[in-house]
Design a protein that fits this description.
The complex is a heterodimer. By secondary structure, chain A is α/β, with parallel strands linked by helices. Chain A has two domains: 176 residues, HUPs (Rossmann fold), CATH 3.40.50; 125 residues, Rossmann fold (3-Layer(aba) Sandwich), CATH 3.40.50. Chain B is of the alpha/beta class. In chain B, the strands form three sheets. In chain B, strands 11-10-9-12-8-1-6-7-13 form a nine-stranded mixed sheet, with helices on both faces. In chain B, strands 2-5 form a two-stranded antiparallel sheet. Chain B starts with a strand and ends in a 5-residue tail after the last helix. Classes of the chains: A alpha/beta, B alpha/beta. Chains A and B meet through helix 3, helix 4, strand 7, strand 9 and strand 10 of A and helix 3, helix 4, strand 9, strand 10 and strand 11 of B.
């Protein structure tokens, strides 16, 4: 069995968790084992179970305890490790989200198992999982196997194909009460503060519109926001120099000391393409560079480039994209 | 407050990575090594907490002798003490092994710490494993990817970055906290600090002193390959007036790349 930890937001399974579940199903089929989805939370944890069925796990475990109503790495790690010990899966997958990255290492340490972080590929070789993951923010790629059971991995969002939901699948729902002794949890999330804008994170976006020094000032990120607004799942990114100049928050930074992204479309606007930036975005499916310097290194990785003044190009490109999207 | 900060020596972010295929390792010749950038935020935060509340800041590296340059930098920034836990193993990419060494070192050598600070990840291995694993092994609460930290008596409050917002995490001390960019602006070493740090003795803890079983040190990660990714090919440069190139680009994205 492969167990997939399902993270929920506003009572719905996150897309990145469903991607992990899809990948688990594909690998489980090769290994000849089943998949199970795992929901952890307070009394309302099973609200997502019915929806999850359509994504085809054989089993859905729901671990409930009032002490788990708020996320706590300690409590969640114990609940997950306990069900793993009880059911003995071959592998446990998490999405490499903020929560997955926080929780999976605790679960692995609790079980004394190794962990493959932020994987972008999983293969079955000689009946064993082999994981591929970028290191040095994508300047190199590491392949590894794990000499421990279960095989625990976090899967990078936006990389593994999501299988369409199918009606009529009948997963068995197994409810359990998680055992969390009093005083066990010494830290918990007290509050979640959502960002004011409805903007999604650069790591989760299908389209990333990034700006660098060429924008000349913080106010001109508005140009990029207007382009991003054309798409349903788009985010604004930035180079390190734009962030270090204080033009935009560091949560937008793409590159080696920022985030690694792999959207369908990455628009690099006024970004020269320092090696640490290229590391963070080179796995994007399609890269477009707009820069006035024809020698800028960003053009070496771009599928399409426009050498020109971004202040002239971007408003026109926005208009042309709007027309194309309206067709 | 007694604060421990764990730092790692890594190639700087401008490094071009080359691979020695026979050993599946990174070629170190010609690389410029620095303290992992996120670790600098952790050191700075420790120094600020000490300045506000008193106590000591002790910086620890698990690694080879070469890492003393990174430890000296931390001393020059203002850390009270630096310790090398000497581990001659080449890069294992195995967070659990490092976490076990650190957790045992904390128990045996650095007992009584109120706060264990880390960078949110080491630049390079990019694992983001060790802080959470150390917290689990020691039974401590954690807050990772933190951009704001407040300590009030035996309670900590940390704001950590999550998709589309922040989580406010409340925890009791002792605890593990890992730093994200934005937590602070690390100070530069002063010349006086650099001169003083050069003369400092850096104690060495040998792995054998920690009494870890061979099984605990045996890597769980088996490296089966390490390579540079295929180079992206430079694509097409569109020529012409902005209105023209914009129209052409939109059409190519729709019809050729099929991404819009």
């Amino acid at each position: 069995m492969i167990i997939v930890f399902i993270e929920t937001r506003d009572g719905k399974a996150k897309k990145s968790s469903l991607e992990a579940l899809s990948e688990a199903k594909r690998r489980a089929a090769e290994l000849g084992v089943e998949t199970a989805a795992l929901l952890v939370g307070g009394a309302a944890a099973d609200g997502s179970a019915a929806e999850l069925r359509a994504h085809g796990p054989a089993r859905i475990y729901v671990l409930e305890n009032a002490a788990l109503a708020d996320y706590s790495p300690q409590g969640y790690a114990k609940a997950v490790a306990d069900i793993v010990r009880e059911t003995g899966p071959a592998a446990v997958f998490f999405a490499a989200t903020a929560m997955g990255k926080d929780l999976a290492p605790r679960v692995a340490a609790r079980l004394g198992a190794g962990l493959a972080s932020d994987c972008t590929g999983i293969a079955v070789k000689d009946g064993q999982l082999e994981f591929t993951r970028p290191v040095f923010a994508g300047k190199a790629v590491l392949s590894l196997t794990l000499a421990s059971t279960p095989q625990i991995a976090t899967l990078r969002p936006n990389v593994f194909p999501l299988e369409a939901a199918a009606a009529g699948a009948a997963a068995e729902i197994i409810k359990k009460t998680a055992d969390i002794p009093d005083g066990f949890i010494k830290g918990r999330v007290a509050e979640v503060v959502k960002e004011q804008s409805a903007e999604i994170d650069v790591t989760e976006a299908d389209v990333v519109v990034s700006g660098g020094r060429g924008l000349k000032g913080p106010e001109n990120f508005a140009l990029l926001r207007e382009v991003a607004a054309l798409f349903p799942r788009a985010a604004v990114g930035a180079s390190r120099s734009a962030v270090d100049s204080g033009w935009i928050g560091h949560q937008h930074q793409v590159g080696q000391t920022g985030k690694t992204v792999s959207p369908n479309l990455y628009l690099a606007v006024g970004i020269s393409g320092a090696i640490q930036h290229l590391a963070g975005m080179s796995s994007s499916k399609c890269i477009v560079a707009i820069n006035k310097d024809p020698e800028a290194p960003i053009f070496k990785v771009a599928d399409y480039g426009i050498v020109g003044d971004l202040f002239e190009v971007i408003p026109r490109l926005r208009e042309e994209l709007r027309k194309v999207l309206a067709e | 407050m007694n604060i421990l900060v764990f730092v790692k020596r890594v190639p700087d972010t401008e490094s071009r990575i080359r691979i020695r295929h026979e050993t599946r390792s990174v070629i170190e010749d010609g690389l410029n090594f620095v303290a992992s950038p996120y670790d600098e935020f952790a050191v700075e935060e420790a120094l600020r907490l000490k300045e506000a509340k008193g106590g000591t800041v002790r910086v620890v590296n698990v690694g080879r002798d070469e890492a003393v340059t990174v430890l000296r930098k931390c001393l020059a920034m203002g850390a009270d003490e630096a310790v090398l836990v000497k581990d001659d193993a080449p890069e294992t990419y195995d967070g659990l092994r490092t976490a076990r060494i650190i957790a045992r070192a904390v128990e045996r050598k650095f007992a009584g710490a109120d706060l264990l600070l880390f960078g949110k990840q080491a630049v390079g291995t990019d694992n983001s494993q060790v802080p959470s694993m150390v917290a689990e092994l020691l039974g401590l609460p954690q807050a990772n990817v933190v951009t704001k930290l407040e300590i009030d008596g035996a309670t900590g409050t940390a704001w950590r970055e999550v998709e589309g917002g922040m989580e406010k995490v409340v925890f009791s001390l002792p605890a593990v906290v890992s730093a994200q960019k934005g937590l602070n602006e690390p100070r530069y070493e002063t010349l006086k600090g650099i001169m003083a740090a050069k003369k400092r003795d850096i104690p060495v803890v040998r792995l054998e002193e920690l009494g870890l079983a061979a099984e605990e040190l045996g890597p769980k990660v088996v490296i089966t390959g390490l390579d540079v990714p295929p180079q992206r090919q430079a694509g097409r440069i569109l020529q012409g007036e902005p209105a023209e190139t914009a129209r052409e680009l939109a059409a190519l994205l729709r019809n050729e790349a099929k991404v819009v």
